[in-house]
Every structure is written in C-alpha cells, then in structure tokens.
Design a protein that fits this description.
Order of helices and strands: EHEEHEHEEEEEEHEHEHEEEEEEEHEEEH
Strand content: 15-25%
Strand order of the largest sheet: 5-2-1-9-19
Radius of gyration: 21 Å
Number of helices: 8
CATH architecture of the largest domain: 3-Layer(bba) Sandwich
CATH topology of the largest domain: FAD/NAD(P)-binding domain
Number of strands: 22
Number of domains: 2
Largest sheet: 5 strands, parallel
C-alpha cells in the first residue's frame, strides 16, 4: 500500500487528501498532519474581524470530516522533513511516506517591520485567533473612534484582505452614522492601487481609485513602512500617520519544517506537475509553493495564492501522484488561473484571470451587490463540500 503524507489542513491539504483517497481508495494510506483542530474558511476572516461571523460559523473539525473517509488525522505540526529518508518528523513520532504533499501555508513574518502584528501595534486578519483579536480591537475602537490605517507592508503578497477590511470598515461606520468621525488611510506597497502583486487586472486600478475616492479613503501607494509605534505608523518617506486602529498584511515565508526544501524565503520551487525539483516524491501546493512575481516593483511585493488557486493546485498534484501509482501518463495541468469574490462592504467584485500573470487569455472585473451575496453563498457551499469530502464538485 502506498503511504501518502499531507502537511496542512486548509484548502490544499484537505483537497489533496480527499482527492487521493477518492481516486486511489484502498491502494493508498493517506495521513494528514495539522497542528490545528479545525479547517478554517480563511476568506471569511475579515467578517470575523468585523463581528459579522463567529468562529463556529466558518470552521469544521478535521477529525470528524477526515476519518469517515478513511483518512488518518494526526493533530501535530511537522517539525522537520528528512527528504532523503522520506520521513516527516513531529514532536512525538516519525512518519515514513512514499509521497509527501506540502500544503503548510506560510509563516507570517511580523519581524519584517518593528512593531508589526498582534504582539506589536497592529491587527492581522490572516489567522482565526488573530481575527478574533482584531474583532475585540474593533469593539474597543467603536467606543472611542478615531483615525484608521489599513494596508500592506513591503514584501507582502496577500493584498485582498486589507482591501476588503477597509471597505467593510467604511460600510459599517456609515451604517452606524459615525463615518465622519473616522479618517481612513490605505497604505500599500503596491506600485498603484489594484496591482495586487499581479500587475493589475483589467480596469482594477482605475475602478479602485474611483472607489476609494467615492468612499473618501486616502491612498498612499508605492510606500514602505519604517516602524509601528503605539498609535502611529511611520513611513519610509518620513510621514507619520496617527491612528486608533491599524491593520496591516505582513510578508510571508515558508514554514520552519520545510524551509530547507525551498528558496531563500523558504518557498518550494516545483515543476509544472507540482513536484519538487530535486525530490520527485515531494509535491507542494498553495502558499508554500514558490511563484515568481511578474515584474520587479519599486517597493517589494509578492504574488498572491488564493484558495481557488490552491484547490486547483491540490487537484493537479493529486493527479500527478495517481498517475505515478497507476502508471498512466500524467496530463499537463492548465496554466494557473484565479477566480475571486471580493467583499466591498456594501457590494462585491467578481475577478478572474486566466492565466494568473500577464499576458492573459481572459480577464474579468465586475462589480455588483450580487457578488457580495455570492461570496456568502460560496462560503456555505464550500464548507458543505469539505464536510462531506466532495472535492470532485466545482
């Protein structure tokens, strides 16, 4: 029986596990390792920060959804991977594998800027516990509102959540009829608004510049942050922004357990079938995978890897493993594309690109209240799919 170990219990890890068990059945022993108890629907974390969702609304117990499918769940993070010996090392055991799928997600590098992060002077909405803490900060803020600063520091790659958070704050403050008490500033390392680390998408720059202007949100683009101090954001150009609430996206790196398998930032280079370039029985999907930016920007930016992209990678990686085991030739995966539903508080955007990086065959950017409700519906649909392991559905 082929032993397959999977690191990570989010979009990529779950999708790979369900697909491999579905396609291989009893021919494979599939084991998933994750230090967390629950799968978290990460796209809804900005809503948790706003108090629009509770943690129990967007989580599923991993053991309860994996074990009925015959997938072994070990609630431990990997501490290391011995690629030569094909072993995963945890705090309590060693797990041998024939194939390893790395879908660990990233390490959040708050140390990149002094004072960045929940242990410093800014909120973060990239992990569930941080989003809960951000909601507590939001509730305190409402008792004594003042300036808000939202954005992404130099080296960040996940730009969508700060946009959503800024629009959601604007919408909520208007509902509470206190928007006039809260100046909002959006600071980003992107060379221009709507760049997203992918050189923009159709009219994203022009549309978002108008959106920010209509909402009276000040933009500071192409900017790096020097330091965060209590109540202040100090920019590299010498400007200082005061705030009562600040939320910034940090840079990311590969996680410690697999850092040695990757590039200088710990992200893992792969071929077109998501195989490690030196160890063909190691595959990598999602944020842990190395992906070069389409252009060098004046202030460093990275390339985002969304849940949609990660699911697609995980399905293709599973097909690669199945092809190896069954001896059937692997088909070449399609170029990596992206599809997103972006909440704008009182509206939404549907964005897609094929391929992800320019030049593109297809690209869409549409705004409508229907896409906000579409994101709510997709949250419910995806959680239902994961609850029953129905990854073969779109």
């Amino acid at each position: 029986m082929t032993r397959i170990a999977i690191l990570g219990g989010s979009f990529g890890g779950l999708t790979a596990a369900f697909e491999l068990k579905r396609l291989l059945g009893n021919r494979a022993e599939v084991t998933l390792l994750c230090g967390q108890n629950d799968f978290v629907f990460v796209p809804s974390l900005p809503w948790v920060a706003m108090g629009w969702r509770r943690p129990q609304d967007i989580t599923l117990p991993l053991k309860d959804i994996l074990e009925p499918k015959g997938i072994k769940f070990i609630q431990e993070d990997a501490q290391g991977v011995d690629a030569d010996a094909s072993k995963v090392v945890t705090a309590t055991q060693e797990i041998s594998y024939d194939y390893l799928v790395v879908s660990t997600g990233p390490e959040l590098v708050f140390s990149a800027v002094p004072g960045l992060g929940p242990e410093g002077h800014t909120e973060c909405i990239f992990e569930l516990d941080m989003a809960v803490k951000a909601n507590e900060a939001w509730n305190r803020f409402l008792e004594d509102p003042g300036p808000v600063v939202v954005g992404s520091v130099q080296g960040a790659s996940c730009f969508g959540p700060p946009y959503e958070y800024a629009f959601e704050i604007d919408t909520e403050l208007r509902k509470r009829k206190i928007r006039h008490k809260v100046p909002i500033t959006f600071v980003t390392s992107e060379p221009y608004i709507g760049h997203f680390g992918i050189a923009g998408l159709k009219t994203s720059r022009r549309v978002l510049e108008d959106e920010f202007a209509n909402r009276d949100i000040k933009i500071i683009a192409n900017q790096a942050v020097e330091e965060f101090t209590p109540g202040e954001v100090k920019l590299k150009d010498g400007e200082t922004l005061s705030h009562k609430l600040a939320m910034f996206a940090p840079p990311m790196s590969g996680v410690k357990a697999v850092f040695h398998l990757g590039n200088p930032k710990g992200f893992i280079p792969v071929d077109s079938h998501y195989r490690h370039k030196d160890f063909k029985n190691i595959l990598c999907v999602g944020v842990a995978m190395a992906l070069a930016p389409p252009e060098q920007t004046p202030v460093p930016t990275g390339v985002p890897k969304t849940g949609y992209m990660t699911v697609k990678m995980a399905k293709d990686a599973a097909k690669t493993i199945v092809s190896d085991i069954t001896g059937k030739p692997a088909t070449e995966p399609e170029p990596l594309g992206v599809m997103c539903l972006v909440d704008m508080g009182d509206s939404g955007v549907y964005a897609s690109a094929k391929p992800l990086l320019p030049p593109r065959q297809e690209a869409v950017w549409k705004k409508s209240i229907a896409f906000k409700w579409g994101k709510y519906a997709f949250e419910k649909y995806f959680l239902w799919k994961m609850r029953y392991g129905l990854t073969q559905l779109p």
